[in-house]
Records
---
Amino acid sequence: MMHWTFGFLVFILFSWGINQQNPELTESIQRGEGIYEDFCITCHRANGKGFGKMYPPLAGSDFLLNKREESIRAVKYGLSGEITVNDKTYNKKMEPLGLSDKEVADVMNFILNSWGNTSEKMVTVEEVEKKVKN
Amino acid sequence: MTLKFLSFLYLISIFICNKKDATIIQEKNSDVTFEWVVNDVEIPWGMAFLPDGSFLYTEKRGIIFYYKDGKKTEVGRPPDVYNRGQGGLLDICLHPKFSENNFIYLTLARKPEGENGGNTALIRAEFDGEKVINYQVLYQAKPFTTAGHHFGSRIVFDENDYVYFTIGDRGERDLNPQNPKSDGGKVYRLHDDGRIPADNPFSLDNGNKSAVFSYGHRNPQGMTIHPETGEIWAHEHGPKGGDEINIVKKGNNYGWPVITYGLEYSGLKITDQTSKPGMEQPLYYWIPSIAPSGMTFVNSDKYPEWKGNLLVGSLVFEYLERLELKDNKVVKRTKLLENLGRVRNVIQSKDGYIYVSIENKGILRIKSF
C-alpha cells in the first residue's frame, strides 16, 4: 500500500515537474497539433504512420528523431530526392508549406512528442531561424 | 420457410450493400499512349486553351506560363498570391469571347498587403499574347485567415457568359458551408465584369453573400460544363471516403457537413446522416477517396470510345480516372496513366485532344486512337 502511494506521488511530482519546466513546450505542442491537422495530416495521417510507398511515417521515424536539422529544413522548405526512413526508401517531393519559423517550431514539437515519439530538447523559433538560414 | 425468408433477406441485403459499390475501379491499365508537351513543372494547377491551339497554364507558386510552338514562356505573376499549404495560384480560364476582349480569369489564394492571412479571390486580367496585365479583383472571399487548406478552386463559363467559381470551406466547416452570410464552401456566380446577377438565389438583404450560387460544399477542385446539357458538373474533396460528384444547380444545398458519406481522417464519424430533406444527394461518391482534381467531359472525335465519358484526376492514387456514365449514373471506372504522379488537372483542348497536368512532371497529351 505504502509503495503505491509513494509511486503515485512520484508520478504526480514528475508530471508536475515536466509541466512546470515546459509550459512553453506544452503550448507549442498544442499549436503544433493545429498546424499538423491543417498542413500535414492528409499525407502523414492522423496516426503519424504515413501512407503507402510515397508518404513516410513520422511515428517512430529514425529520420525525424535523428536528423533534427534536416527535418526542420524539410518542414520549412519541403524536401526532394531520395531519403531513407526506417530502412525504407522514399522519393516523393514534399512541397514547401509556407509556414512561418514559429509554426515550423510548433509543428516540429508536436511531431517530436506524439505517437510515442519523445524529444528532450524543445525546438525554438531561434533554432529554426538559425537552421533554415544555413 | 424461415430459411427461405432469411436467404431472401440475405440476398436483398447483399443487393442493397453492393448497390453503392457497383463501380469497382478496373485495375488494369488500358492501352493509352501519350506524349509529353511540357516538362519541368512544379505544380501545374490550371490550363486554358487559346483559339490557335496554344495554351496558358498556372503554377501554384504564382506564375502564369504560355506554351506556344513547342516553347514555354513566363507571362505573368499575379500580385498577392498566398502560397501556403493548399493555397497559391489556382485555376485559369478564358472569357468565351477572348478573341475579342483578351480577358482571362484566375482564382488564387490571396493575401493582400497588410493582412495576416489569405482567402480565395477571382481575378480578371488581360493577355495580349506576350504578357498578362491589368489584374483586377472581381471577388474577394473573407475573412483572411492563416488556415492552409480548402481554397478550392475551379472556374467555368456557361453559354450566357456567367462566370462560376468555387471556394472551399477554408477549414471552417461549422461556420461556412451552410451559412449564406459567410464565404467558403460555395459555388459562386457573377457576370463577366464581376457584377452580381440580379437573379442569384441569395439576395443581399439580411447580409447574405449574394454572389453565392450553391452551398454546402467542402472543397471543389473540379468543375466543367456538360457538352450537351450545358449543366455544371463539379466534384469535391470529401473527408475520408466522401469525395463527391454533383450537378450544381442554383440555390441547391449539397449538404456538407450535415450529411456526408465520409469520415474524419481519424476514422471517427462526422455525422450519422447521409441524407436529409432539402439537401442534394451526390451523383456519385468515391470510396475510398481518390482526392479528385480537374475534370472534363470527352466529346471530341479523337477518342471515339470515350465519347461522353468523364475524366477526373486523382491526386492521392496518382492516376487519371475515366468514368463511364449512363443516365447520369456512373457505370464503369477505369484507371489511366498510372504511376506518373499526382494528376492535378485534365482538360480537352479546342482541337479535341486531352491534356493532363501532373505535379513535378509536366503536361502530357493523350494520343488519339
---
Amino acid sequence: MVNLLSANLLRLRKSPLFWEMSALSFAFGAFMCITRVYERSTYGFSVSLDSVFFGYAMVMGIVMATFIPMFFGTEHSDGTIRNKLAIGHSRVAIYLSGLIVSFGAAVTFYAAYLLACIVVGIPFIGNLDLPASLTAAALCGSLLMAAAFCAIFLSVTMNQSRKATSVVVCLLGTFLLLILAVVINAKLNAPEFIDLYSLDVDGVCTPRIEPNPAYLSGMEREVYRFLYDLLPTGQAIQYSNVAFTSPIRLMGLGAAVSMISAAAGAALFQRKDLR
Amino acid sequence: MMNLLSAGFFRLWRSKSFWVSLAVMAIVGAIEPLFGYAAMAELAANGSMDASVSLDSRYIIFPFLSGILSSAFCALFVGAGHSDGGIRSKLAAGHRRAVVYLSELILCVTAGALLCLGYIAAVLATGIPLLGPMRTPLLTVLWYTLCAVIMTTAITALFTTISILCHNKAVAAVACIFLAYFLLFLGIFLNARLAEPEFYPAHQSIEDGQIVTVEARPNPGYIRGMKRAVYQFLFDLPGCQAVQLSVTMTTGVPPRLPLWSLASMTMFAGLGVALFRKKDLK
C-alpha cells in the first residue's frame, strides 16, 4: 500500500495535468478576487472576501471530473493496473491508493484557490467576516464534498477501461447533477406566499397575500431538501454561498456518499475483467 | 468518397456512442412532456388560475441538448478513428486527406441532425396526447426546427474539426464538452446583457399603502456602440445561438441565424481541411 501510494504520488508530481490544474485553480481564485474589486470600483458594490472564499466548491466537481479520468484512466490504457496486480498488490489496495491520491489532488487544487484568495483577496478586499465556526464548518464540509466527488469519479474511472468514455460520463454527469441541483434550489426557494395588490374604483390600493401554488410543502419539501443535501452538486451550491442551515447533516451526507461510492466502486473493481 | 461514406455509415450504425446519444435525446424528449403534465396537474390541484403548460416550452429545448451530446459523440466517434488507426488505414488505401476529413464531417453532421430528429419525434409522440398541439403556428415551428437543425450541424462541424485534429480522444472529449458548455453559458450571459432595456420606464410602486410614481431613467448597464456589436456578433455564433433560437421561437427566428450557421460550418470545414492536411498522424 505504501509503495502504491509512493508511486502514485511520484506520478502525480510529474504529471503536467496536475500542475496545470493547480495553476488554473490559483488563477481562478485570483480572477474571482479581481472581479469583486472591479465590481466595487465600477458599480460601487460593497464586496467581501466571504463571497469568493468558498467559491471553488462550485467548480470542484467539474475540475475533478476532468482530472480523475485523465489521470487514472492512463493506468488502464498503459497497462499499469495489470503490472501492479502482477507484482502482488491487491485490487482493494490499488483502488484505495487511487482514492487517497485523488483526494490529495483535490485538496491541493482547493489549497491553490484559497492561497490566491489570501494573497490577492486579503490585500484588495479585506479579511473574512465569517465567524470562525462557520468558516471551519464550510471548509471541512467542502472537503468532504470533494471526497464524495473523488469517490464517485474514481468508481467510474476504475471500472471503465476506456479513458475517453470515463471523461464523457464524468463530465456530462457532473453538469447534469449541477443543473439538477440548481432546479431543486429554485423550487426550494419559491416563496410560500405571493404579494398581490388590488385597486378599487376609488383608486385605493389594497395589498393581499395569496399562497404560492409552486411552493413545496410537507413530505414533498422534505424529499427535495434531502436530495439537495445529498447531491454533491447541491452541497457545492450551499458551500459556495456559505448558505447552509445544518452543517452536521451536510457533512454526514457527504461522508455517506463518499463511503458508499468508494465501497461500490471497490466491489465492482474486484470483479472487473482487466483483459 | 462514396466508399468512405458507405463504410462510415456502417460504422455509425454500429456505433454505441451514437445510439446512446440518440437514446438520451429520445428519453429526454419523452420525459419533458410528462414533467409538463405533472406540473399542470399540480397547478390545477393548487387552484392556480392559469394551470396550462404548453408543448412549445418543451419543444424548444432540443438545440441545447443536441449541442452538448454532439460534443461527446464527435469526440468519441472521430477519436475512435485515431485510436483504432482507421484514419491512417484510409490514407494508406489512397484516399486524400480532404476527402477523409469531409467524409467524417458528413457523418457527424448527419448524426447531429438525427439526434435532433430523435428528440422531436419523442417530444411530439408523448407531448401532443398529454399537453395538446403546439400554440405557435406550424410554419413558425418548422422554420425554428430548420434553423435549430442547421445550428446543430454547424456546431457539430466545429466539434468534428477539433476531434480530427486532436490525436488524444480523451483530450478531444474534454475540449469539446467544455466548449459546448462554455458557448451555452456565454449565450445565456449575452442574452441577459443584450436584453437589458435602454431606459427603465416610469412605474408606480406602493410604499406605506401610498402609490408612488418613479420617473423613467436611463439604464447605466445598457450596452451600446462597438461593445454591443461585438456582443451581438458572438450571440449569433452557433452554440450561443441556441439561446437566441429559444427566445425567438414564437416570434420567428431571424433569417440571419441560419445564414451565420452555414457560414460558420463552411469556415470550420475549410479550416479543418487546411489543418488536417498538415497534421502529423504518427
